[in-house]
Write a structure and sequence with these properties.
The chain is an alpha/beta fold. It contains twelve helices and eleven strands. Strands 1-7-6-5-4-2-3 form a seven-stranded mixed sheet, with helices on both faces. Strands 8-9-11-10 form a four-stranded antiparallel sheet, covered by helices on one side. Helix 3 runs parallel beside helix 9, helix 4 packs across helix 5 and helix 10 packs parallel to helix 12. Bound molecules: pyridoxal-5'-phosphate (PLP). The site of pyridoxal-5'-phosphate has 13 residues, from helix 4. InterPro entries: Aminotrans_II_pyridoxalP_BS (IPR001917), Aminotransferase_I/II_large (IPR004839), HisP_aminotrans (IPR005861), PyrdxlP-dep_Trfase (IPR015424), PyrdxlP-dep_Trfase_major (IPR015421), PyrdxlP-dep_Trfase_small (IPR015422). It catalyses: L-histidinol phosphate + 2-oxoglutarate = 3-(imidazol-4-yl)-2-oxopropyl phosphate + L-glutamate. Its cofactor is pyridoxal 5'-phosphate.
Length: 345
């Protein structure tokens, strides 16, 4: 498989912007830096941040068991996704493949980049329709997006299906693992060496409790990471974000404990919800949210608002008629949700 052939010609030719810190990156203490037009008075933030985020990548690569050169960091995973579109998809020519219902951002980014979207709905058990996907894609299909665990359906895709798609699809396969830390499945990042067309996306926005700092990551072969790195904005991860992430990653025990608590609460909420008479169906969850089908989603959503509870109404999504999505909160928040649900008539 030749990845170079999938990259847009204009991107292959592009000469990246060389920042001051790219040209001279030897952070020797004795050096006096008069090259970047910064304010020289020290505040801890007066200097531009490391454009390659070396310290943070080093730490993340040990946690994620990959090499730092297999990592790209973005201002949220949304920036990583946007860079992937701009690297591989030629506007008005190429297309991407989506499996609805899924995360809405893929289609927004496709539209923003003027890329056609081909939609192949999931089966009713929310698993990919592998044969339809393989039948429908064409020579301009550049990226297949697999969100696993999937938002909003909360399930993981079967490993056998993902593996077939990775082998048969001759474009880039993006596996969005925003919820992998709540899942029983292993991350596909351990299989990068086997699949040169694989990009795994993860984020610190969910399990790590850092949605506010905007830090997402892409994991792929050094060849793919290299191209994405060349086109990213030079200083895309600001100093405050790098500092906060490094701090948080020092104490993983806190994160691990919170994940365990959220998973326990997921069991409790799913179990209690079966006694609510207007709940028609509960779907199994491999994420930090659950999808529930009720009698009338619009009405129940409004009633919950009146009880000062904001959930997500997914009734307009394909296969999600009358479905609400509940994020698993703190034990108190979940009890408040369950009490409110019981009181509704
Ligand atoms: C929440 C979420 C993300 C996270 O996006 P960030 O930009 O990293 O906050 C990515 N993908 C999916 C499917 C999500 O649900």
């Amino acid at each position: 498989m030749n990845i170079q052939n999938l990259i847009r010609p204009s991107i292959l030719k592009l000469k990246p912007y060389a920042s001051a810190r790219d040209e001279f990156k030897d952070f020797e203490k004795s050096m006096t830096f008069l090259d970047a037009n910064e304010n020289p008075f020290e505040t801890g933030l007066n200097r531009y941040p490391d454009p390659q985020q070396s310290a943070l990548k080093w730490r993340l690569s040990t946690i994620k068991k990959c090499n730092p050169n297999q990592l790209l960091l973005g201002n949220g995973s949304d920036e990583v996704l946007d860079l992937i579109f701009r690297t591989f998809c030629e506007p008005e020519k190429d297309n991407i493949i989506l499996l609805p219902p899924t995360y809405g951002m893929y289609e927004v980014l496709a539209n923003l980049n003027n890329i056609e979207t081909i939609k192949i709905p999931l089966h009713t058990d929310f698993q990919p329709n592998v044969s339809d996907i393989l039948k429908t894609l064409n020579s301009n299909s550049k990226i297949l997006f697999l969100c696993s665990p999937n938002n909003p359906t909360a399930n993981s895709f079967k490993a056998e299906s993902i593996e077939i798609l990775l082998q048969k699809f001759k474009g880039i396969v993006v596996i969005d693992e925003a919820y992998i830390d709540f899942s029983e499945q292993e991350s596909w990042s351990s299989r990068l060496a086997e699949f040169p067309n694989l990009i795994v996306i993860q984020t610190l926005s969910k399990a790590y409790g850092l949605a506010g700092i905007r830090l997402g990551m892409g994991m792929a072969s050094p060849e793919i990471i290299n191209v994405l790195n060349r086109i990213k904005p030079p200083y895309n991860i600001n100093q405050l974000t790098q500092n906060t992430a490094l701090n948080k990653l020092e104490n993983l025990e806190l994160v691990t404990n919170q994940i365990k608590l959220i998973k326990d609460e997921r069991i409790r909420v799913l179990s209690a919800i079966q006694n609510i008479n207007f709940v028609k169906k509960r779907y199994p969850s491999d994420a930090n949210f659950i999808l529930v089908q009720v009698d009338d989603a619009n009405r129940r959503y409004q009633q919950l608002i009146e009880n000062e509870l904001v959930v997500r109404n997914r009734t307009k999504e394909p296969l999600c008629e009358n479905c609400l999505r509940f994020t698993i909160g703190t034990p108190n928040e979940n009890t408040k949700l369950l009490t409110a649900l019981k009181s509704l008539i």
